[in-house]
Predict the structure of Dipeptidyl aminopeptidase/acylaminoacyl peptidase.
Amino acid sequence: MKRILFTALMLVFSIGIYASQELPLEYFIKHGDYLNLKLSPDGKHIAARVRHDGRVFLAILDSDTMEMVGGVKPFNNDIIHHVSWVNNERLVYEYAEKQSYIDSPVPTGELFAVNLDGSKNEMLYGYRASDKSTRSRISSKENAKASQKVLSLLENDDEHILIIEYPWTMRGNVYYDDRVKQPIISKLNIHTGRKRKIDTLPHGSSRALATKNGQVKFMTWTDEKGDLHSAFRDNNDAPWTPLGEAFEQAQGLTPLGLSEDSKSLYLSGRYSEEGIHTLYSLDLQSGEYTRIFGDHKTDIESVILDGNGMPAVGITYPDKSAYEYAAANSRIKTIHKKLTQAFEGQTVNITSSTKDRKTLLVHVSSDINPGEYYLFDSDSLNARFVWANSSWIDPRTLQPMHPIAVPTEDGETLHGYLTLPPAGQSKSAKPPLVVLIHGGPHQPGTRDFWRYDAETQLLANRGFAVLRVNFRGSDGYGTRFERLGYREWGGAMIKDINDAVRWTASQGLVDSQRICAYGASYGGYAALMSVVRAPDLYRCTIGYVGVYDLQYMYSESDIPNSWGGRTYLKRVLGTDAQQLKEYSPIHHVNDIKAKVMLIHGSKDKRVPEINSEVLAEKLEQANNPAEYLQYAQAGHGVFDEENRQELYQGLLDFLNEHLK
């Protein structure tokens, strides 16, 4: 224990705060350099996705020397966006391609394989698979107008993997990966790309779980009403049985993973009146269910598996990150407790390991640490530093996120984070405040977390206090809290945001006369709706790819064309035309006193630019013209770094003009 603690203390940056200094803008708008690392099964090599010069490369590193021994260089501004080790010698990876019509790379659904030294780089699967040259005159590959996901690495088969194929749907002249058609289970050769159909699942949008030998035993799907269903079968030749019939008490539980020995299953579920997300285990022989973690107040956001592939550690965020440990003893559980002591005050995750679990790849991060990787020897308890993401950032120059809890008039508690600028950064006694509103608002993971956030740190570095609040409707606090936001997009949710701003101002830490609202997607909507509801509270507001007429969610967005999308909108927005109008900023421009900035990408399909165009026109008519940043090649958010530089410089100029 002393050795690991000493090693960590020698390697991790101290968190003392440097004297106030303005960091270059590009520090905060550049995409990360080392995006993620994965350890090979034998631990001799590390697969790294590395960003350089606008592209994301695959680099294979010797884990002892950290020298590059192989890799893949993508074309143009393409990126490699997912990588997995199949065995010690070969990897599979997926591409996201830079298209001429949009600035962010688009996943193609194709699958490639390469040896660790960079040789035998082959496209295995995809809509262009047979177009690629092979050593044979006759291609063994088929063009598949579908996307895929690897289901099983087939432990005792070095030649094949098991995949699930999701056929695309053609509408007009365009193919869409809408998960409507029945998925296909196939065995795929990792050298030739030849595949053989194993089965077809009966429901569109199905997810599946397979054993190490390729038996697809569990299936989960979502119906058009948005309800989840699961089924079980003994083997690939057996009929499917609803999970509740095969194993009692399965209602509301969704299979997530199988143990290494295929004797246990872990499932996603809820407990308590709050509907807090947690995990359960199912003994497939006895049919006994067990809740894996004890009581916790917020959802389990991620898990670390033990040596048998079952959850050992759950990571949750009641304010800062916290850990829940499974009752069953495991070596991973013991090691993780030691790691959290060594890296006290940070979030510790074990992202991959060798097959024997002796060597672990550990990721450490916090509100002021963008992320560091360590190789950890579980025998010697030594941690060896590997890499720091966004390595140009010195954590000592960043500002901590302080957890806050805000009581509401109706008895709820809103949790969030307040980040203050460095002492002396603001010329006045109290800094101006920017409330940074998250998007979503109801999808999994759409909440504010205690973790490194580049926008928060940029604003703090420039002298602004930053408030982030998890208003009702946010994920992470159970289904009851989330459902409080349904059909309240412009009502109780906005009231929560404005009440949190008033509460923060009342604490005496910020200037209550200099406040701006800013957010993207739903956050962009809320930034405009907040100044509608509280016109005297804000000096300015910034809407980034926001929806400003809720009717457009039905008529212009891509959501209604997705599986279950229209049902989702009816559930969270409703169809009351009068309420949709009342909750739309576009119909309240005369109530907006704040100065307005609008930012939008012309290729945005989720929230089309017509939202900003019409709002800008109406603000012009109301003699409150908006400052408008338009990006012709951007979708639902600006990806290109040169454009991001312009965007954030414009945003800072706008804030300085109206708050400083």
Summary: Residues 56 and 528 are 36 Å apart (CA to CA). The first helix runs from residue 2 to 11. Confidence is low (pLDDT under 50) at residues 1-17, 133-138. The domain at 399-659 is CATH 3.40.50.1820 (Rossmann fold).
